[in-house]
Structures are given as structure tokens and as C-alpha cells.
Amino acid sequence: MKRAGIRDVAQRAGVSISTVSNALNRPHMVSEKLVERVRSAADQLGYVPLQAAQQLRAGRSGLLGMTVINIANPFFADMVAGAEDAASAAGMRVLVGNSSDDIGKERDHLELFERVQVEGALVSPFGPLQPWLQRLRGRGIPVVLVDAVDDGGEVPSVSFDDVAGGRLAAEHLLAAGRRRLAFVGAREEVRQVRERLHGARLAVARHPDAGLELIWTERTTSDLGRAFGEQLAARAPADRPDGLVVSNDHLAIGLVHGLISGGVRVPADVAVVGYDDIEFAALAAVPLTSVRQPAREMGRTAAELLLARIAGTAGPDLGNIVYQPEIVVRESTTGDAGR
């Protein structure tokens, strides 16, 4: 079915195209009777003004672009929600591109942002993107990195101290007397994962009697976590880690279920620390100790920083903001007997 256009509305209402335009966009310029007639015709035909085209003709799209690594992770969903809070307050909308742990998809989203002429881009990168970031900026599209930093020092960012977060998680387990630690995560090439591992290694290095095993997964889903938990449960107790630092809560919640289904008590036999402190962490079968990241606040702050750059009101400094971690302690590391 052909979409109704402004010419169709004009014919239905028996007026000129310019009168339709005035009635819908500048109603003060025509009589109330004409406005009502035009709107009635538009409603009958299902006519929707092409707002994007109108905005582009005015030199702006009203859109911010935002890429995230994996929207299925509630951490990134919360980050998007924070960006939408700030954008909505400024009368703008956010076009979200979900990379799904795929650098090809990530680049496709950035190319789309360029084509639709977003006014600015928020980028939570999965892979190296310097050429694309330079390309966007070269076309006058300001960029702010979220949950990442620019090693070149040219792009402003809102990030999290993941080295400190990984160290805090491992120190919590070591303070509880755990010595056979393991770091469980996916994609060491992802900066956040790599830095969390580095922090855990720093903590373990201070304890000569402690060790850190590395367990890599293909993705960080709860289903994969459960499978790895069952594999760990099948090990002999002496060969099994007694403390796990897990790169995100989705994976950690699955691991806890896998361990329990395999007859391992959490935390009596194996204590588990997750990362992000998503809402489900507190609601898990064994409430999960987790390193908290203020995802919504980070998204909101990044969008506000981007909006200031679009408006030309940002200060001369880049605005590199780094949030510090805190650990939220729950039963997965402190329960009396475990489950």
C-alpha cells in the first residue's frame, strides 16, 4: 500500500500543499477551521510527516548514535537508558547499534551513523576503531567514548577503572582465605576484560601462596556460564578453584547454577565474584557478590558530555571522566554453609 503524502492530504482537504504544510507545522498562520480540516484529512489517510527529512533540511537530524558491545547484557542496556535520559531532556533521540561482539557489525553501525547524519556519536567499542572515529570527526560528528578510553588522547571519554575493579574482586576472595583463584571471561582482546584480568593478577601477585587460573569462554552468556560451572564441578576438589573472578554477572550467575547443579556448594566450596552488579545479581539463587559499575549514570554523563560538545559549550579539556569501583558483598562469597 502506497504511503500517503502531503499532496494526498491537500487533495482530500481541498486545499493547497502550502496550506497543508502551514496547518501542520505553523498552525498560527491559518484559521482554526482549516487546521481542523487538514488534520482530519491527514488522520483519514494515515499521513505521518517525515520529521527526519524536515530536520535534515534544517541542518540537523535530532539523533545521537550509540554503539554497544552487547545489548543482551543488562549493563549495556542500562547504559543506553542513561544516554536516552540525557538525550530526551535535550529533545533528541538515540539510534542504538548493537555490535553483538562483532567488529564488522560495529563498523556497519558507525557507517549508518554517518549516512543518517547523527549529530554526535557515543561509542562503546568492541574492537579498534581509530580510523572510523577519525572519519566521523572529520565529517564534523563529535564522538565520546563510553566504557573505554582513547589511547591517543584525542577523544573524550567516560570510563571505569577496570584494573582497580579486577584487583578489588580478587582481594575480596583472598581476604576470605581463598588461594586457588580463577579468572573466567571471554575475549582477552577486549580492553575491559584485559584490564580486569590485570587487576586480578596484581592482587594475586601479593600472595606467594596464591595462584590464578585463566578460563576463557567464547561469549559471556549465562548458558555458557552454566556449562563451565558444570565442568568445574566435575573436577576433583583439589583441582578445582576455590574462588572465581568472573568478567560479568551474566556469566557469573550461570557459573553459580552450574556449580550447584554439579553438587558444589557456593560459597563453601567455591566463592564467586561477578562484575557490573546488574539487577539480577541480587536476585540470583545465591545472591551474587559483584563489582558495581554505575552503568546508567555513565551513559547519562557521556551523553551530556556529547551534547555539550554539539552545542559548543564544552570546556577546552577533553572531559575524560573515570568512575571508581566498589564491591557489593552478597551470599556468593559470604554465605555460612553455601548451597
List the helices and strands and how they pair.
Elements: H1 6-13, H2 17-25, H3 32-45, H4 51-57, E1 63-68, H5 74-89, E2 93-98, H6 103-115, E3 120-123, H7 130-138, E4 143-146, E5 157-160, H8 162-175, E6 180-186, H9 191-205, E7 211-217, H10 222-233, E8 243-246, H11 249-261, E9 271-276, E10 289-292, H12 295-311, E11 321-323, E12 326-328, H13 331-334
Parallel strand pairs: 1-2, 1-3, 3-4, 4-5, 5-11, 6-7, 6-8, 8-9, 9-10
Antiparallel strand pairs: 10-12
Helix pairs in contact: 1-2, 1-3, 2-3, 5-12, 8-9, 10-11
Protein name: LacI family transcriptional regulator
Keywords: DNA-binding, Transcription, Transcription regulation
Domain HTH lacI-type: 4-58
Give a structural overview.
This protein is an alpha/beta fold and 339 residues long. Helices cover 45% and strands 17% of the residues. It has helices at residues 6-13, 17-25, 32-45, 51-57, 74-89, 103-115, 130-138, 162-175, 191-205, 222-233, 249-261, 295-311, 331-334; strands at residues 63-68, 93-98, 120-123, 143-146, 157-160, 180-186, 211-217, 243-246, 271-276, 289-292, 321-323, 326-328. Helix 5 (74-89) links the parallel strand 1 (63-68) and strand 2 (93-98). The radius of gyration is 26 Å and the shape is elongated. The mean pLDDT is 88.
